Amino acid sequence: MLKTSHERPDRRLRGVAEELTNGCASYIRLVKGTGGMGAGRTRLDRERNKLCLRDVEYIGKEAKKVKAMVKPSVLKENLSKMKSLHSKLKGLCDDPQHSIPDVFIWMLSGPKRVAYARIAARQILHSVREEECGEHCGKIQTLFLRLPGKKSLGLSGWSIQAKVDIYFWFGLAKNKRDFLKGLPQGYKAIRAGNSLKAPPKTLNYPDRLQFELRAHMYQARGLLAADDTGLSDPFAKVIFSTHTDTTQVIEETLSPTWDQTLIMPNITLFGRAEELRDDPPIIIIEVFDQDTVGKNEYIGRTIAKPVVKMSHERYEEPRFPSQLDWYQMYRGMTKAGEILAAFELLQIKGKDQIESTKVTEAIQTSQGHKFTVPKGIRPLLAKHRIEVLFWGLRDLKRVQLISVDRPRVDIEIAGRCVSSCLINNYKKNPNFAEPVKFIEDVDLPEVEYWCPPISITCIDCRAFGRSVLVGTHIISNISKFVFRPPDKSKIYTGKTLDRLSNASEFYITFKQLKKLVNKNKLCFFRVSLDLNLDDEEKKTKEDEEDPLDEATLDWWSKYFASLETLNEEKSKMDEANIQDVYNDDEDQESIVPSTETNDHKAKLAEQVGVVKQAKKSLGAPVRKWKHKKLPIDELKIYDTELENSNEFSGFNDLLNSFDLYRGKREDLADDITDQKRIVGNFKGAFKIYRHPLPHYVEQPDPQYGMFKGLPSNEPIHVLVRVYIIRATDLHPTDPNGKSDPYIVISLGENKVNDKENYISKQLNPTFGKAFDFEATFPMESILNVQIYDWDLLSADDLIGETKIDLENRFYSKHRSLCGVAEKYAIFGYNQWRDPMKPSEILKKLCKELKLDGPHFMPGKVRVGNKTFQGAIELEDENGHKKPTEEHVALVALRNWEEIPKVGCKLVPEHVETRSLYNSEKPGIEQGRVELWVDMFPMDMPLPGPPVDVSPRKPKGFQLRVIIWNTDEVLLQDDDFFTGEKASDIYLKGWLLGDDKQETDIHYRSLTGEGNFNWRFIYPFDYLVAEEKCVVTKKESMFSWDETEFKIPPRLNLQVWDADHFSADDFLGSLTLDLTRLPRGAKSANKCSLNMAAEDDDSSNVPMISIFKQRRIKGLGWPFTAKNDQDELGNHSTFGGKVEAEISLLTAEEAEKNPAGYGRDEPDPLEKPNRPDTSFVWFMNPLKSLRYLICARFKWLIIKVFIALLLIALLVLFIYSSPSWIMKKIVGA
């Protein structure tokens, strides 16, 4: 769907996904209706039933997702997803334990078994339901017999041993009446005996149809190399029914043009004419390489079906003559090339039946006579002119143990050939002296689909007239080299629109407006112009509001600002894709009732929420505030290789690189394994166009053709400056999961090894290096950047490497010598680094491209019919302004693609990201490296010193955190004496992980309030641009070097309950990002969990950066604690408040104004005013009696004492009352 020109392939894919979803739903419904997952006689059946049901449900859900996500922009990704689902579904069809054995067909020669074929029983199994039948049940199929055992492997097993047309039916005995229904009608069944139930012994077809097959074999392309030279001597063999025929042999080519019609008369076929017309037998085409010694070597095979003409039909359009088509050949699982052919099957009833369809007369060749392809079938040819640019050869390897010294290149297409001049000394100069040659009046098909390939052959001319083949390359698709003249009507329309889009200020009358063809262009231009003006006004306002100190800026400021812009663009694209999916799904479900639509929207919103949550948990901390972006000049950061960007089309506008191959191609070889066959590289280009060109098109130059303005290919000296910024995601090579990377750069014989400056234990190192090389193109044009892992005892390991072809960049029209900056400046972090000023570059481009201009005016410049505007003043270091033309010239260069005909995108100031690969692990990315390359010709003024890209050194800071009080802290313990809730509160804090500090303990807090007046001090090193703290330390005592870690600046505070005889209890935590710090509550009542929320939507608290404000005090930041009732731990509870003061000082300021830890000198803090109940009970028994017993049970003790006193008095009264009474009675 992607390669063809079918309209809206996304709709077709959506239809396939919908059909798959419905099929899965139907299967699930049938399985559950017949017993569900528990159905089956054995445990294996039941478990397999569960597996199938689970996988089919998964496939159905995924297909539904693909249907919702199908968009033209992501069609390839969705197509690969559907392919994986197809392979998964196909895997379910294979039963792990077949209950029915497979069917074997053996071909015997006497007692010896010669060849066989194996057919799976499920392919021929019959069912009363047609969709459940095997794919070959009740059908005539063609089987290819193969050699048994190990003989089927290798060359001997590829070719066909025998071809059998066979009819299979395998089913239940009660359905045997259906076994002959698939046979061609018109037969008489001859049975053994008189039993009607027995199967027929033979089938007799009284009516036999006679046919003649015509195989029009035109050409082939991209065949596999079968000889050691990298070529083949191919011929094709056509097999149909019981007939075979072969084409003639074309020697030493991978793209043969046979132009031969093979005729096979008197072919007898059985069955009804209508069935044969609709479903004819297949044709087998095999291609072999002819060898003078030994057997012919098999190259590949394909199958085709002919176009059938019955006797009562006329040989006329639209079905006849049949059209040529490309057929893909395979050798095993490997693609072996393509064949351009057409096949016709004509019914014969009499001798004169096909006179009207006679083929062309036979022509005599060295191999005998042959019939050429008839005119109606062969492609319509037209005269073409082919211009070949022979630029040079690169990296040629030894051939037959001798280095290549005098090579030449032959170009062949459609039987016409042109040879380059001879390179007399390859080592001295590998370029050709005569770069452009022509092939006149080449007959090529008018339809590009049928065009033959271009064959590139490199030959080394050696002593005594010997010629040795070095390597070959086949260009199968030549469409990218075809020049198509523009439509005459579009040329004049384009001029009108160019004039319109040119003017930044224009006045237009109503009469002129009526003459314009496309009025929407005008409206769009005016709207976009107004928007641009508004944006400029906003920018100027922002610049005025936020002045910037340029003295503090450097190249890294520009880099990180550009990196932030790149991340914003990616996030916008992700949001746009999600919105497109939502809108597309909304359109599809518009006919669904509202309840279902709302449910679907809710599910989609839930899925998007899950994605956001995953990004939060896996990625960087979410920004909870939108800070104003500083007006810093930026550069362009490419997330891929510069040549892979669509803007520059691989820098192949002048030169193309073609790999030269030699030797046989291995089985199951791909592009990666084929690298071993590469013996060199040919650099050149092709221009193919119909000749003569229309008169309104610019005519080619007599000497250089369409390669006008071709630069000289003589050797040139160039200063190459390579900037290596950083590497990311390097593959670990050490046992500890890290690497010690360093850089090795080579350009020709020049090599720089930066082993001394390796970075210890890093997978994302920042190098910040610049290297200068003096090279000579073309001998030294491949830049090789390698990253090695340093090892103390063993040899260093190659992590990965990337290669850059500097020559293609150097000669490209996109001017990748030195990137065009966003603004022109003569000082500061954005200083212009190209030795040529923008005006000089503009004049040079206009001269080379023969453009009118540049014509400078105050604040304007005109190039051709295009006018650009820009600033008119330039500021120097002293603040003085003077008039200049450089700003407007730079605007013209930045918008050079707007120049009609010759305009293109110029390479901006940039950083490109290149993938690293290792030959020992082919095709697997080993990491990425960010770099850029500048090139300066030595015959031009040399540039200034390189840009300082050395890594920023972290700046020393000291963070001081004063913990004043806590409030509403959770009460964890129960008092031993009183049973009251209480906590012994203390706080822990750290910044870098290994710098934990603790306050003293506030004992017996009954209300959750704690008083501390305690100071934490955290010295640290900080990178302002990256917003990361830098920690350098040894990972272990056995580490050889210190390792640098970069961690986000986050202050962590925890509140704990101290226990003397058990582990301390955790009460709550608070994490504060120092770059996005929530402003503390002004009062304790306003402190809530909302201040600790990480989501932008749920937190409306203003954010500040401690690195800007330097000091902040808050009466409340909330502690959060885990909710015990929440099993997943997604929800938190309120764990208390902390009143703190946070201040940040530079290392110099901290040295001038020292402060002590805790409450120590200097600058001591007052002791907290804690309540009298704050003490340890077993350390102060008297206080315990006073505060724990007396304070609480004072009145109870008094009451008990009075009661005891009264009881004692009563007891004494009772005890003494008898004697007192006796005395009174006696009167003593």
From TrEMBL:
Residues in coiled coil: none
Gene Ontology biological process terms in this record: plasma membrane organization
Compartment(s) where it occurs, according to its Swiss-Prot or TrEMBL record: Membrane
C2 domain mapped to chain residues: 195-320, 367-492, 698-819, 941-1088
SUPFAM superfamilies found in the cross-reference section: C2 domain (Calcium/lipid-binding domain, CaLB)
InterPro entries reported in the protein's UniProt record: C2_dom, C2_domain_sf, C2D_Ferlin, C2E_Ferlin, C2F_Ferlin, Ferlin, Ferlin_B-domain, Ferlin_C
First-listed, main subcellular location of the protein, grouped into a coarse class: membrane
GO CC terms: membrane
The keyword NAD belongs to this UniProt entry's keyword annotation: no
Keyword Repeat: yes
Membrane topology: Single-pass membrane protein
Transmembrane segments: 1195-1215
Domain of life: Eukaryota
Keywords, in A-Z order: Membrane, Repeat, Transmembrane, Transmembrane helix
Family matches, as PANTHER family: FER-1-LIKE (PTHR12546), MISFIRE, ISOFORM F (PTHR12546:SF60)
Name of the protein: C2 domain-containing protein
Species in which this protein is naturally found: Ciona savignyi (Pacific transparent sea squirt)
